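New to this. Help decode the following:
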Amino acid sequence: MVLSSSHLANPLLTLNRKPPIEIVHLYVSPAHNYFGHHGHPADAHAILEVSEARCVAGRGIEGDRFFDFKESYKGQITFFSWEVYEALRKELKVEGCSPSVFRRNAITLGVDLNELIGQTFEIQGVRFEGVEECRPCYWMDEAFHAGAEERMRGRGGLRARILTSGTLWQSTHFPPVTACLIAGGKSSRMGSDKAGVEFEGTVLWKRQMAALEALSPVESLISGRAGAAYAESGLLIVEDEVSDAGPLAGIVSGLRAAAQPLVCFLAVDLPWICGNDLVSLLVACSETCGAVPAHDGYFEALAAIFPKTALPLAEMALQSEDRSLQHFVRECEARGLVRVIESANGNEARFKSVNSPEDLNAQ
C-alpha cells in the first residue's frame, strides 16, 4: 500500500462541505392530534417511531397523516433539532419526555434547520427543499410543558418538500464505516482521466464522493493515483501496491488502509449509483458482515460494503491468475463475511459504467 505523501498529515480532511445531517429518530402518525382541532380537544393518535421511512417525491412519507395531503404541500416532511429538544428540556426542567411529542417526522443532529429554509439539501441520498419554519402552536404547551410555545419560536423545526423518492433510516444505528472511492484505473477508453470528466454538471470523483457521504462515514479515502484529478481533494489517497491489477487491487488497498470495521467501495465510473443505494446496503450490515448487491447471479462488487476481515481473501484473489471479483465475493459469502442483496428487477441500469466519450454522450 502506497500513501500519497501530501495527504499523510491529516487523512480525515473532507471536501470542505458540512458534515452529513444525522437522523436520531424517525416518526410517523396515521392521523392528526392537533391539526384542524382548534376549539376542540386534541386527539390521542399514536405517533410511531420507525427505523425507516419511505419518502415519495411530491407526496410525503408513506403511512404518515400528511401523505398526499395536497399538491405541492410545504410540509410533506417535518424536521426538528435534537439540540433544540435538549435545550428545551433544560430550560423548562422537563424529564422523561420523548421528542415524539412535537410530532415532527425526523429528529436531526448537527444542523441549524433555519439555515435550510429556502435551500435544497440532501440526507442519505434523498433530496429536500426547505420551505419554512415549522412554527410552534399553543398545543406545544399541552404536549411538552407550559411555556414551550414561547420558547420554541424561531426554532420550531423545518417544513420541507420531498424532491426525490428514497428511504430514510435512523443514522445513529449505522455501524461505523470507511468510505473508499475506487479511482485508480487508466481510463484508456475515455482518453483522459475518468475521475475528472464532467457528468450532469459535476466531475465524476466529486459526484461519487457526495454519494459516499450519505453514509456519514467516519473517514473517507480514495484508492487511486497521486497527481490525478482528485489530488487536491484533501482526502487520503491510497495507491495500489500491485499495478495493472484492476479494481481488486483498489479493494485490497482500501481494506488495508481503512481504520473502520466496514469499508464501502464505490467505483468512480458508476454515476447512476446514489447515496440512498449505498445507505440501503449499510443498514443490512453488521460490524462483521458487509453487503453486496447482485442481479441475475452477478455480484456488483464495486458498489458494495466489505468488512476489513475480508482482507486475506482479497489478497488471495489478487494473487490468483484471473483476479476475479466474482470469485472473491463468492468466497466472502461462503464465510459469512457479506450478505448478497438481490436488486429489484429493472435496477441493473444503475450499475452501468461510464467508460468512453460515447457513454457520456448517451447519458
